[in-house]
Write a structure and sequence with these properties.
single chain; about 80 residues; mainly alpha; rod-shaped
Length: about 80
């Protein structure tokens, strides 16, 4: 049983190393750029910049300004 598992593991490792060595630099560059773009997009989604429309950004900006004016008024 252990011998069969060892053979299966070594076969998958061998297949992975073979596929890694057959990729060209052009393919890896494309893959890296896609990964980078994906990370940038995820970061924007986390911050909420990508999902908001222009109007909702303006509404939020106006709301913040209004709150700051109210706070200034209260503390004067």
């Amino acid at each position: 049983m252990i011998g069969v598992l060892g053979f299966a593991v070594s076969e998958t490792v061998l297949l992975k190393t073979m596929t890694k060595t057959t990729t060209t630099t052009k393919d890896t560059k494309k893959k890296e750029s896609k990964e980078r773009k994906g990370k940038e997009r995820k970061g924007k989604e986390r911050r909420g910049e990508r999902s908001k429309t222009k109007e909702s950004r303006e509404k939020e900006k106006n709301r913040r300004q209004h709150l700051s004016h109210v706070l200034v008024f209260l503390f004067e």
